[in-house]
Every structure is written in C-alpha cells, then in structure tokens.
C-alpha cells in the first residue's frame, strides 16, 4: 500500500536560494527582466519625450517593475522564501500582472515610436524610441515566460 505522507510533499521542487536562482527556470528569467526593463526606461529617458502621457506610463511601468523584480531577486538570493509554496503563488501573480502592464506599456511605446517617425527632432529620437519599443516587447515576453513557467512547474 502506497503511503501518502511527507514523501508525497517532497516530490515538489524546492525553491532555489543563493546562486541556484540563476540556474533554475523560471527564476533565471528575473535578471534578464531587470536588464531589459532597465534599457526600456533608459532609452525612453534619452528621447525628447514628445508624448508625456504615453511615455510617462512606460517609464512608470518599467521603473516600478524593475525595482520590484530586483527586490524579488534579492529575496530569492537571500532565501527569504524559506521554501514556502506561497512564494510561488506570489511570484506567478506578480509576473502575470506585470506582463499585462508591460504589454500596455509596450503598445503605448510603439505608438510613440510611430508618432516620432516624422518628428522634426531628427532620426535619433525615432531610433531611441524604436529600441525602447523592442526592449519593451522583449521584457513583456520574458515576464510572460516567467509567469507561465511557474504555473506549469
């Protein structure tokens, strides 16, 4: 007869701590999310913000997500989770919600890019906006990958 005791609970994978965070999917996505998100707000800040309302939202989403993801990464590295299943739920909800917010920011940034194509400020703003749009969509994709890989883990 098979026992359903503590051995059944040990089949679930443990949450990584320390350097193992960088080697474990989906937690290895956190650092690229931070780096690509940082590029988004640096590139948007380097443009002459022609559409402050649209690009302000992009800056807010990218900067806030970058800071919260950095705190989440530090908490995993330092082992604050203590292998609790609640951290998986928190992580999945955070990355799912952030993916939705980042998708809205990426679409708004793409709109700002289209509007800056024929801007009098020259091609530099268009190129910076194009790069910001690329990194916004890439960051969105990373957040989606992270959220779904936790869900299907």
UniProtKB/TrEMBL annotation:
The UniProt entry's GO biological process terms, in alphabetical order, are: myelination
Q: What are the entry keywords?
A: Membrane, Transmembrane, Transmembrane helix
- A UniProt-annotated Pfam family: MARVEL
One Gene Ontology cellular component annotation held by this UniProt entry: membrane
Molecular-function GO terms, alphabetical: structural constituent of myelin sheath
Q: List the membrane topology term(s).
A: Multi-pass membrane protein
Per UniProt, subcellular location reads as: Membrane
The portions of this protein that span the membrane are 27-51, 57-80, 92-112, 132-152
Spell out the protein name for this chain: MALL protein
Q: Which gene encodes it?
A: Mall
């Amino acid at each position: 007869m098979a026992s359903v005791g503590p051995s059944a609970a040990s089949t679930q994978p443990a949450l990584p701590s320390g350097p193992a965070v960088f080697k474990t999917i989906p937690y290895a996505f956190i650092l690229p999310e931070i780096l690509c998100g940082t590029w988004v707000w640096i590139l948007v800040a380097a443009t002459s913000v022609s559409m402050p309302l649209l690009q302000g939202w992009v800056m807010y989403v990218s900067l806030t997500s970058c800071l919260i993801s950095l705190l989440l990464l530090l908490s995993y590295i330092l082992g604050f989770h203590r292998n609790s299943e609640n951290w998986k739920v928190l992580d999945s909800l955070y990355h799912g919600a952030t993916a939705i917010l980042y998708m809205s920011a990426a679409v708004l940034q793409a709109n700002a890019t289209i509007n800056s194509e024929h801007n009098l400020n020259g091609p530099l703003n268009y190129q910076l906006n194009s790069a910001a749009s690329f990194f916004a969509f890439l960051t969105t994709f990373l957040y989606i990958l992270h959220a779904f890989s936790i869900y299907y883990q």
